[in-house]
Amino acid sequence: MRPIILCFGGLDPTGGAGIQADIEAIFQTGAKAMSIGCAITAQNTKRVYKIKPIAPKWIAWQSQYVLEEFDISAIKIGMCANKTVVKTIAKIVKTLPQVPMILDPIITSGMGDDLGGTELALAIRKYLLPLSTVITPNMIELQKLSSAEVLENKIADIKNTGCKNILLTATDSSGSKSKVTHYWFGKEQKSFTYPKISGAYHGSGCTLAASLSSFIGQKIPCKKAAKMALNYTWRTIDKSCIMGRQQQLPERKV
Ligand code: PLP
């Protein structure tokens, strides 16, 4: 039977990111997503235009009835949209202390749209980082989660919150031919390098965090799961297609 991944996230009608990205990536990598809707967005592959957070009682109800019936192997958190939603999710995650939690700290979109601002970043830091098994920020999100000066201090600062592992993406400089992802697993640091695929992609971060939660939910140790999720995500980008007018959509059946 497929392990179940409880996914908190937002609806992206294009399916490039958000809830559909979770469902596709998690299914294709061997687990099953159950989605708790936390926000509805109005967007396309060009921009995120509007975000409507879901009321806390609805997030609580959705979770309650799923948790009453199913055992959960991992939790994945994506778009939270505002502080109230963050606090609501944190309350639910705290009731599942044995379940690994993978957090994609969504604060800014790939196109640079602000998806919640400083208040959201501070709330994620305060309420969700301490509960996280792995977080998957990009450089901009890391910047917003920690005000420490240099990279090493930012990592130490994030770890001090209680967050166990950090998979930091998009650390390469823009002219580079390769894409480097840094991983801090406990005290160990590792770098993964992939050939850079040119272009812009909608939902690559969601694909990475979702596939990582799927592998961790299948009891694959964190470091190996990170490598497998990076390999999978690279392939989805390599096979992605231009369906809209701007960013390409990852092809998750690879
Ligand atoms: N919309 C939703 C619902 C998301 O979960 C995300 C995830 O990051 C985005 C938009 C932004 O996607 P991207 O960073 O690929 O532009």
Number of domains: 1
Helical content stands at: 25-40%
**In terms of per-residue confidence, which ranges show pLDDT below 50 for 5 or more consecutive residues?**
none
Strand content: 15-25%
Termini gap: 21 Å
Question: What would the keywords be for this entry?
Answer:
single chain, 254 residues, alpha/beta, UDP-N-acetylmuramoyl-L-alanine:D-glutamate ligase, 9-stranded mixed β-sheet, 8 helices, 22% strand, globular, binds pyridoxal-5'-phosphate
Task: Describe the secondary-structure layout.
Elements (H helix, E strand, L loop, with lengths): L3 E8 L6 H11 L3 E12 L4 E6 L2 H14 L4 E4 L5 H12 L6 E3 L13 H12 L5 E2 L3 H7 L5 H10 L4 E4 L9 E8 L2 E8 L8 H14 L4 H17 L16
Parallel strand pairs: 1-2, 1-4, 4-5, 5-6, 6-7
Antiparallel strand pairs: 2-3, 7-8, 8-9
Helix pairs in contact: 1-7, 2-3, 3-4, 7-8
Bound molecules: pyridoxal-5'-phosphate.
